[in-house]
Amino acid sequence: MRLKIEHITTFSYDHPISEAYTEMCLRPQDGAGQHCLSFSLKTEPHDEQLNYRDRFGNDISHFDTIQPHNQLVVAARSVVLTPDHFVQSMAHLSPLDEFDFLQGSSYAPLLSEISALAESISTPGDPKASALAIMRHTWGAIKYEKGATDVNTTAGEALALGRGVCQDFAHVMLSACRSQKIPARYVSGYLYNNGYSAASHAWVDVYIPGEGWLSLDPTHNVEQNGQYVRVAIGRDYADVPPTRGIFVGNAKESMEVSVKVDAVL
Amino acid sequence: MPGRAGSEQKMVEKSVLDTLYDISQFYDEMFEATGQPREHYRTLHEQLGSLSMEDFAEKHRVADASFLYQGITFTVYGQESGIERIFPFDLIPRIIPFEEWRQLEEGLTQRVTALNLFLQDVYHEQRILREKRVPAELVFSAKHFRREMMDVTPARGVYAHITGTDLIRDKSGEYFVLEDNLRSPSGVSYMLENRQVMKRIFADLFGRYRVSPVEQYPQALLDTLRSVAPHGYSDATVVLLTPGIYNSAYFEHTFLARMMGIEIVEGHDLVAHNNKIYMRTTQGLQLVDVIYRRVDDDFLDPLAFRQDSALGVAGLLNAYRAGNVTLANAIGTGVADDKAVYAYVPEMIRFYLDQDPILNNVPTYVGLDEKECGYILANLDKLVVKAVNESGGYGMLIGPHASQAEREKFREQVRANPRNYIAQPTLALSRHPTLLEDELYGCHIDLRPYTLYGEKITVVPGGLTRVALRKGSLVVNSSQGGGSKDTWVLRE
Q1: What per-residue confidence (pLDDT) applies to A196?
Q2: Residue A254: CB atoms within 10 Å
Q3: Contact B325, B290 (CB under 8 A)
């Protein structure tokens, strides 16, 4: 599919602030069948951006503003061609990936209750079947509900609560897969939903030895298809928030995000 | 007590040498096992024979006053009163013959070269891990391994511009490396001050030895820092970044900045803009090229590392990544001085340089290795167990001197988190005659030479000899009752 994305973040301050430093992880990836046909990232106030690639291969933009301001707008616009099936074959993982994607992480810690559950539904020696079973189980164990959890909720808390959003589904599945020694990574991106709700989304890649990465969405119990746009990967949400920053000034910050994903011909 | 060999000095009624001195079973720096002074100590030995305890006490008062007057103090954490102290100083210098030093210099150069190649490798291709010469898990689980440094290449590919290597000698007198300090090694100001005081107090004796100078250190450090400026400017603006007056080494920060003639700044004196670092001055913003930082990685940049840090500069990592500023030492060097990674430095030397190590490691058992962990647990009464991320003599079990309860506590800790522990045999550190409570006593010592790496590697001839000023104590750290001595490296 060809999808057009507009992702606008507005930071507002109740008093002018003097310095702000912002990192943005917003550029859709190129590779594994996905093509980012165009991308623009504009900030207001405007200043020089530094683009670099982080340890996971994500494109990060950094910029600062050192003039007084009480609003900061970050607008990312892109057109992306997505593949019907995600394929990323890879015979071996790098030593660092093998380590990072098997470790517990802050949002997806290795917990005995999740591990026991994952073991009970896994098929020993068949990581693909196990991952699919874990996806199905996660999908069934959590009810999608906005506002039930927040940006700090971890896998254990979400599972105990039985409610959450895509991020929570992903973290539970990450914990479960890693507990079964299946390397798993967090994917941050967008989901096209025929113009309905949707927008920013998160799901999970699992590594099948000798084959490569398989991309699974536990929120919907499906494999990644043409409606998914991949932006970044990491150990969990903490590695890939779309924007993060700090500011200097005695003010209260509020943030507003609007994301639109449309199909284009 | 060994006799006084033909001294031309005035005879005193009771000299320092007339107290009972026990050479004991350790390697003594001054005396052979027979009680004769070693050749390079003979002149000093004669001089000692001509000095009474009162003479020494007088010299000591002059030295202490000089240290206090210059404000050479350090901070002891966790004490109720008077945490500012002068660093205890012993007047009897440690002497290292030329040939011995040449070996050390070669060994340190080799080791620092390999450690830098290791850092370059783990933050890029990771060859040594792919070839399983060093366990990947050990490196990636190190507290100071910084994923942010992956594929970032510092100027000239140098990571550890300043290294302070801790060396000890065993019973036979062989030198061993105990620790590689690759983050912000401190203590060099004491090396410089000790020398200044000794030259004044023992002008005569100093003149009778051909001692290599150490006074050039600040200039050599500045040259090193300039040589790694982002665009090779020889007139680069270099600043020293300090955490501030509450840091235990603040005296050293001001001292070094003054000696180099550079600005000392705190985080709020710097600002990042368009991926460059500027210093706020009365004339406006001034571009900074090199930061000699004495602030830990965690606190350097609240955007990249600890958000609650008020000591750093937001945006610093990205200015660094963009190649517009050099940090000395680089971010992430701590992965190579993790106490468990240390065990693999000889392997690094073989892997990168295809050489045998000139300086050996102390035998080390790594908790992460199942077999070695078993050995540690079975021999807690014989070993020294150390937590890998603690320093200054904290987080340590000295097995033979510990109580059963203390050993059991460590057993639990090692079992719960084996990655976090290493163990070494109890070391018979060499001893050096030292004045302790009005008598000559053999105190245990170590040696921390400083190695600079910019365009090339240089080792300053000398270093900080730390001395355990409690009888029988093996702990030389200043926070645990240690002091220092001047270190005289003899010229050819």
Answers
A1: 65
A2: 10
A3: yes
**Greatest distance between any 2 Cα atoms in chain A:** 59
Interface test with B, best of A66, A101, A239 (most B CBs within 10 A): A66
Cβ distance of B126 and A96 shorter than 8 Å: yes
* The token pair that represents B472 in the structure block: 């029988």
Provide the 3-class DSSP secondary structure of residue B489: strand
Q: Which amino acid makes up residue A141?
A: A
pLDDT tens digit sequence for A19-70: 999 999 999 999 999 999 999 999 999 888 999 999 999 999 999 999 999 9
**Is domain B364-425 given the CATH code 3.30.1490.270 in the classification?**
yes
State pTM to two decimals. Answer: 0.94
Query: Taking CB atoms and an 8 Å cutoff, what residues of chain A touch B332?
Result: none
Please indicate whether, in this complex, the C-beta atoms of A95 and B148 are within 8 angstroms of each other.
no
- With a pLDDT cut of 70, the percent of chain A lying above it is 98
* Share above pLDDT 70 across residues of chain B, in percent, rounded to a whole number: 93
The pair of structure tokens assigned to A49 is: 């951006």
pLDDT in tens, B89-142: 899 999 999 999 999 999 999 999 999 999 999 999 999 999 999 999 999 999
How is domain B100-182+212-353 classified at the CATH fold level? Answer: Rossmann fold (3.40.50)
Using a CB-CB distance cutoff of 8 angstroms, which residues of chain A are in contact with residue B136? Answer: 95-96, 98-99
d(CA B273, CA B322): 12
Q: Residue A81 has what pLDDT?
A: 97
Same CATH topology for B100-182+212-353 and B364-425?
A: no
Q: Cα–Cα distance between A207 and A145 in angstroms, integer?
A: 29
DSSP one-letter code for B349: I
Closest by CA to B134, choosing from B387, B417, B345, B376, is B345
**How many beta carbons lie within 10 A of that of residue A117, not counting itself?**
20
Q: Residue A46's closest chain B neighbor by CA?
A: B274
Q: Where are the domains of chain A?
A: 2-82+242-263, 88-228
Pairwise CB contact (< 8 Å): B147 & A94: no
The fraction of chain B above a pLDDT of 90, given in percent, is: 75
CATH code 3.40.50.300 for A2-82+242-263: no
Q: Is the bond preceding residue A68 a cis peptide, omega within 30 degrees?
A: no
For chain A, how are helix, strand and coil distributed in percent, rounded to 5? 20, 45, 35
pLDDT for residue B7: 45
Q: Is the confidence at residue B309, as pLDDT, over 70?
A: yes
> Domain residues of chain B, as ranges?
16-94+193-207+430-489, 100-182+212-353, 364-425
Please, what CATH class does the domain formed by A88-228 belong to?
A: alpha beta
Give the amino acid at B187: G
Indicate yes or no: CB of B271 within 8 angstroms of CB of A99: no
Read off the pLDDT of residues B142-178 as tens digits, 9 standing for 90 and up: 999 999 999 999 999 999 999 999 999 999 999 999 9
Angstrom distance (rounded) from CA B400 to CA B392:
20
Q: Residue B88: which pLDDT band, with cuts at 50, 70 and 90?
A: confident
Q: Which residue of A has its CA nearest to B310?
A: A248
**Helix, strand, or coil (residue B203):** helix
Interval A203-232 mean pLDDT: 96
